[in-house]
Design brief:
single chain, 624 residues, alpha/beta, nine-stranded mixed sheet, 13 strands, 52% helix
Length: 624
Amino acid sequence: MEASPFSHPPVDLGTQLARLRKQAGKTQADVSAALGVDSSKISRIEDGKIIPSMEDVDTIIGSLCTNEAELYRRYLRITWRFLKRPPFDHPDLEHLETAECTLQRIESFCAQNPSPALTAQASMHMEGLTRAAGYLWELEHSLGFIGSIGVGKTTALCTLCGLVSEGEEGALVERILLEYGAGGTTICEVVIRTGSDFRLLVEPYTEEEVIQFVNDFCAGLVDPQPNTEDGERGVPKEIDRAIRNMSGLKKARAKGADGKRTTTDQAAELARELRPEALRSEVFNRLRMWDRTTTNLVYRPEIDGEGRVWLRNAFAEVNKGQRSDVGLPRRITVVVPFPLSPALPFNVTIVDTKGIDGSPLRPDLKACLENPRMITVLCSAFNQAPGPIFEQLLKQTIETGSSESVFTRCIGLALARDGEAKKMTDEGEFVQTAEEGYELKIDQAESELRRWGCDAVPVQVYNANGDVSAPVLSFLSDKVRRLRADQSKRIVQISGEINSLIRDHESVLLASAQREVFRRLSIFVRQHQWLPTRTGPVHLRLERAVREQHQRSVWATANRAGSWPTLDVYYYLGVGTAVDAKKRANPAADGLQELITNMIGDETLAPGDRPPVRLELEERGEHC
């Protein structure tokens, strides 16, 4: 590749120049004539084999005579030092340029005007600006679906995102690409994203974790607890199914001569023959973990037939533990060669969380709610929406003090079945159409959410068996766009405050106001150095969960030193501690908020309406 004085050119420079040339209706010969070179050089520039100088790029762009070409020239002249150079077609390029130029300006200004007070204030603004720009730079977003087992969550997300077999007839259940059923079917969390081909990426449990599952499985065979389905003890039925398939210890059901069905349980028969320790060893050896090393299953079109059919069959085999080369999955990533949400100019990943069976207070669900790049879709049955499960989950979010930002990223999705909407009654009268039933259900659900203190959570209704997906997808798209718009507004706001800071930096009154603000805040900090005494025990939620959870879950968490997905001791203790800390900190936080509010309204602290002081106070208030 020839040397060039162009410093840090975009990787797609040649591609963009070719696109702009074609858009302008010019040929390579036209451009080469303007540049005074052979047309083969233009061809090599556009193919990326030569990096042109900035002078050559100026000449090429000047020969095109289009507004977009001039915008590209301006884009190339920006030196990106604080942010990574975004692509020219980035949807938020304008705001990223504003952020980069503002960061460079305030850095240069501080270097020319060294002052501890100025540096501190500038650093605060630069941190906020960098954070907002970093959020906008990334185009990755995700939709996390949360719901109880059997509610129809997986069916809904598959039909919304096109994960359905094409050209096949039959019931919807036969065309969904991700295996599902009446709850408890999916063995783990499933992540769906777009890629170049169909494939499955399997993150398996470690050997030590599999051994623990085998121990629990065998304990259920040796000493099954009463009143538990199929005698399971501590092992969810989907794990039980996978272990049986992986070990070959299946249940067989047959109809006898008398017409009655009988069940033969090979695992139970083995348990009657062996001592507990020998049984655990035998079951684990039957899994042949040393052969289960495959984690990447790739579709081969010349062998595997139609891609969607392959994906459906391969997912079902992995999910049930029917593949001899794949381990017990902790997470399955499904890759498909088509966009999951064409309405969005972003890279969208779908997360199908493991269905809620009992308490919704799980670390993985909390992580979904707190992910700033994820829209959480709270799925509930139409007749129950929003339902007690989400009441518990959302109220805990309020108690732990993170509700405001979380709720802006949530929507409720009431999943209707055929005929349910028309059974809605308004003032004692049945509605006339399904649309009226939907509107009435949305009003009822949002009213209930407001009663819980979740005003910011909107509700939509969707019937996977008959509704078109466009309205729900459009709603989710708008939700993502609003999140990004908030960051764009933040960039504009902070950039304006930085410009004001630069303009007013020599103001003695501003410096005096800053000193007074810091003096008042310092007094407040000295008076509130310690939290008051604890409001109560932090383990009450754990005690209640132990009483309410199924005994097999209690047994399983005790066997794992407190760590079990549906009863995580440390998670409940953490929640209790967070709630207690919030209660103890509330008086001080309220006092600080009141102090800041009073200072914002104190005109003596903003002589001449000094925006930097006001913004600093407002940002401190947001952190309370």
